[in-house]
Structures are given as C-alpha cells and as structure tokens.
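If you are new to this repository, start here. Below is one unmodified record pulled from the training split, so you can see the exact layout before writing a loader.
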Amino acid sequence: MVSYIPPVQDMRFALDTMVGLDAIAALPGYEDASAELVDAVLEEAARLAAEVIAPVNQEGDRQGAVFENGVVRTPDAFKAAYAQYRDGGWNALPFDPDFGGQGLPWCVAMPVQEMWQSASMAFGLCPLLNQGAVELLHEHATEDIKQTYLPKIISGEWTGTMNLTEPQAGSDLAALRCRAERDGDTYRIRGQKVFITYGEHDLADNIVHMVLARLPDAPEGSKGISLFLVPKYLPNPDGSPGARNDVRCVSIEHKLGIHGSPTCVMAFGDTEGAVGWLIGEENRGLNAMFVMMNNARLSVGLQGVAIGERAYQQARDFAKERVQSRDLAGTAGPVTIVHHPDVRRMLLTMRAITEAGRALTYYAGGKLDVAKRTPDAAAKAAAQARVDLLTPVVKAWCSDAGVDIASLGVQVHGGMGYVEETGAAQHLRDARICPIYEGTNGIQAADLAFRKVMRDQGAAARTLFADMRADAAADGAGPAGAGLVAAVAALAEATAWMVAASPEDAAAAATPYLKLFGTVTGGWALARQAAEATARLAAGSGDAGFLKAKLATAQVYADAVLPQAAGLAQTAMAGARGLMDVPEDAL
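And here is the target side for that same chain:
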C-alpha cells in the first residue's frame, strides 16, 4: 500500500482562510493557540500518523478484530499504536485542562483527528468516540462523575462508547426497550444494544458506556428516554478499575469494511443488572446524548474528508507510476496514465472535493470554538446557529463524498483497484459506513430540511447566503467566485421553495437539497481559498507552487462540480412528484 503523507500545508491553509487562528486565539481560554504552537502540533501529529498509525491500516484490515469466549482482541499492531497515541497525550488535545486536557481549540483538533482517520479509519474510530463521551460528560454529568471519569477518558486510559441502537429500533429511538430501574443512588440497566463501536476491546483498562434506557414510569416515545453511564469495571475509591459490571459483549459483526474496529452486540444486566449512573435528568436523555451525537456527526463528516484524502494520494501516486498507452500529444511510446485527460479529470475531481470538504469542516470547527468561548452573547448565538445549520451538511455531504472519491480511486487503479493487494478497495469498503453512521444521511437531510431550514423559515440559511455572495464578489475569487454566484442563486431558490413546501414534498426533496447545499458551500470554501491564494501570489508570499495548484483546484471545482447546483435545485424542487405514485406492489 502507498504510504500516507498528511497534507499539513493544505490543512494550515484551510485554518488560515476559513477559520482565522488569530481570532480563535483571542477567545478566552485559547490564548496559547499561537501559530507556532499549532504548527508544532500539526507536524508532530503528522509524524505519528504517517510513521505509526498508517502502517497498521492494511494489517488491521487483514487480521480484523476477533471475538472468542466473550473476549475481543483488536489487531495485534493496534495495541502498540494506541499506546503511543495515548502516551503522547493526543487524546487530551481539545479538552478542559482542569481534567487533564490541553485546552486547544476544536478547529486545531480537527486536522489532527483527520490525520488519524486517514491513517487508519478503523483505528481512529476509538478516539472519535472518546472525544464525544468527554463532551457529553463535561456538559451534563455531576461533579463527582466528572472527577471520577473525565481524567481517565481524556487521557485515553479509559475509552467511551455510544449505546443507542437496538435490534428492533434502528434509528427510531422512541422504540427502544432497554430498561433502567432505580436502585438507591444508582440504577440497574437491562437490555441489548447493537452496532456498538469499540464496545469491547483490549486497548484500554476500562470502557465507559453511554446507554439510553427507559425507566418503568417513563412516558412513551422519545420523551421517556434517560441516559446512563455504565462502566465495564466499577471504579474503586482510588479511581482504579474494580469489580466487573454486569455488561458483556456477546458477538461482533462481520462487516464490509473497518475490519480492525470491533462492532459489538452488547448485553446489559443478564444477571443482577448492570450498575449505571444517571447523566442529566430522568426522561431527558436524548438532550444529553445529542451532545455526543452532534460531536460524532462532525467527526464522521471529517472521516469522509480523511478517507478521500487517503484514496486521492494513493490514486495519484499510482497514476504517476502506471505506464499505459500513448498520450494525445503523440509522444513516442507509452506514458504514465497521469498524462491522460480522463485520469486527470478523476484525480483533480477527487482533490477538489476533498479540499472543499476539509475547508468546510474546519470552518464549522472554528464556529464551534466561537460558540463555546466568546463572551459576546450575540456572537455566540450566531456561531451556534451556523454550526447547527452546517452539522448535517458536513456529516452527509462529506461522508457521501468520501465514498464517491474512494470509488474514483478504485477506477484510477483499473483492475488493480478491484483486487485487495493495492489497498484501494479497502478505502472504498471503509468509507461506506460513514453515510450510515450517526443517523443515516437521509436522516441528516431531513434534519437540515425540517429543523434547520423550515423551522426558522430559512433565516439562518439566508445569513449564510449573504456571506457567500460577498465572498463570491471578492477580489481574486476568479472563476470559483463567478461560478459561485449562480450556484448560490440556485440554492437560495431551492431554499425558498423548501420553506413553503408541504411535509411530503420537503421529505422527498431533502436529500438532493442537502447535496445542493454541500456542493455550493464547498464551492464557497474554495472561492475564499482562491481569493487568498491570489492575494499571496500578488504579494510574493508563501509557496507559489502550492498557491497556483490551489487556484487550479478551485477552477476544476468551478468547472466540474458547481454547475451541478442548477440540476440539483431542479431535482429538489420536484418534491414528491411521481415518487409516491407507484403502487407498493408495483415496486
């Protein structure tokens, strides 16, 4: 398999153009996030990702996680890699220093997390869930729970999981049956959960499960769900793992991809009942769990970017080595396939969409930092509204793009991409889970349509459109800016239609509408980057080769991707027309 080289230069450029590190470092608590520190963090993370984590990716895929006699073993190489990750303090990057965190901004943690996911998505899923568990507990747990669990999970000594799904419920959490009974200051949890990533493994001393369950007197539906912390081992008074709790893994799934990541069926309370502690209020568990879910949704979108980057690098390097056919210029003898226009089209489309997704995701991370840290109430509300609007877009558009880009990577390899030896197929297999994770992309589309656009009559979206129009007109935006003008107009028209649509039409339109939204906001990100690249070239600052490549990438996006906006708008505004007219027995 081709090695992975983290794209630190593009990551840093995305932070500059879409986030503005100076503004983030001016926020209370982020004063230490200097440009020099960020550069040092990214460079050291790149070394760990390239030299330690990336080499275990293909081995982990081949060996896979193993379940025997109730014990789950991760691939052999994962243990040493996780130990280096943990001992280097990487798990603590964006968290509260009062509990052992390093207190760096989320927008800085995002490129670091991208490196882990590119290097090995199966490995990176464990840290991804850790960070969501930390966010949830930090916001909703009691002080005693925080003191007991946060330092251990932040350090990576213990890991966290998310236990939502049940066999009969799927994405319909209102149908869950896992139950909890009060037992003094604790609760006894009984039931089964499925599709639990890293629900059991051998990388950490303890595993802390976040479990949704229903109390006996709870109201029906989603309003009757509570959230509980259920550890694998009950902590001793000194904080060390103590007696085994009544929770166990009963099997792991055999999956299309991410073979090194154990996806577990978990049984709670088969004997005396698993001991759990209430997080937040009774019957308001979803309110707390959404902290973890929304954190994971941004992270899964970032996984799409990460797998796209890995697939692009491998396809690019293969195309520079694979010799086949003469080029159209009539060169004597065969040339490497990177000289063929169609291969160039695939490679540059892969790169353009990946870089657009990276910039958009980091932008959302920067707004998250503002929402968390600014003392200005109006600025906080505006930043949170922007994060809320973009979360389903980042999750769904970037994760769909990761699958498409990995598929193009296989295509660039030709027949060699379809066999496992090259590793190109693994990227496609691994990427395919991302549109399903954390609420399928159809659910994300419905969230965007109903909760983020129709609920406020498109107000938050129109504010974003105004920002995009201003950036489209900026000096140096060039073809990316020119193409953005028409694309924003198409998105605005579709948004106005969506606001007035019937529920059935909006539901039918939601997925093409989200794809339209992602396509346009991705174009906006590259237009902003094009303007900055033009300014730096004019000033004679920066790496001229990188900046010219950025302009070319923005041009490719403007030519090959942005024109899709008009068609997507028309598809969305067709609504449910025809979709529901075919009788069920005729499908």
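Two things worth knowing about this chain: The mean pLDDT is 96. The two ends are 43 Å apart (CA to CA).
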